[in-house]
Design goal:
By secondary structure, the protein is of the alpha/beta class. It is built from eight helices and eight strands. It has one domain: Glutaredoxin (3-Layer(aba) Sandwich), CATH 3.40.30.80.
Length: 226
């Protein structure tokens, strides 16, 4: 497992990052929360995030690094209790653990879409967000680095939150949970296969998602719990 979560910043990776990020339009704030000790992937997360920032157009990703316990107040402010954690969209989008392997694709695509103001979601999906309105929607997407379908599931959840927050709905959250680093969360839902999606504490979907079906399950769960 440790080998799977070891980041290698190759020339090829840097070129791919540079090519993907080159058309970013607006700056994106990224918060990285790491710990000084007892966190074997914190250094890997810092290495990865800094490479992403370096290969983005200058000034397009504004990185804020918070280190426990030095920056304890920031952990409290942003309600972060695990390391590494990466926040986008002022904490609306959260990555618990290292977005590595296949998951890096969804992470980078999330950054690009936020920067360019384009979620890529279907118009019907956006209409459903507006109908659901301002209520608590807490989406957890449980993933693993080798899973080829996980980035898509995470991206849909991330973009749902992006569109909701654009409309002033501040209680929408997308939490992408790397299962190897956060086994307690995966165990809580009895996850055997990934991606697995929970909404407001209820497991609603396991497997390869289509946008319309995943959105239907998410909104149904949000309505029932809200």
């Amino acid at each position: 497992m440790e080998e799977m979560l070891r980041v290698e910043i190759t020339r090829e990776l840097r070129e791919a990052l540079r090519d993907a990020l080159r058309d970013m339009k607006n700056p994106v704030d990224m918060h990285l929360f790491i710990a000084e000790s007892d966190c074997y992937t914190c250094g890997e997360a810092e290495k990865l995030v800094k490479a992403v920032v370096e290969e983005a157009p200058k000034g397009k990703i504004r990185l804020h690094v918070h280190i426990w316990p030095r920056d304890k107040d920031d952990f409290i402010k942003y309600r972060v209790d695990r390391a590494p954690t990466i926040l986008l969209l002022d904490g609306g989008i959260r990555y618990l653990g290292l977005p590595w392997g296949e998951e890096l694709k969804g992470f980078i695509e999330t950054i690009i879409r936020i920067s360019n103001g384009e979620s890529g979601l279907d118009k019907e999906t956006i209409k459903k967000i507006e109908e659901l309105g301002d209520r608590k929607v807490y989406i957890e997407v449980i993933v693993t680095p080798p899973c080829p379908y996980c980035p898509y599931a995470a991206l849909i959840a991330n973009m749902l939150v992006y569109e909701a927050r654009r409309r002033g709905f501040k209680d929408y959250y997308s939490i992408v949970v790397e299962a190897f680093e956060n086994p307690d969360i995966a165990d809580r839902y009895g996850v055997v296969n990934v991606p697995a999606i929970a909404v407001n504490g209820q497991l609603v979907y396991v497997g390869v998602p289509y946008e319309d079906e995943l959105v239907r399950r998410i909104f149904m769960a949000a309505k029932m719990s809200g």
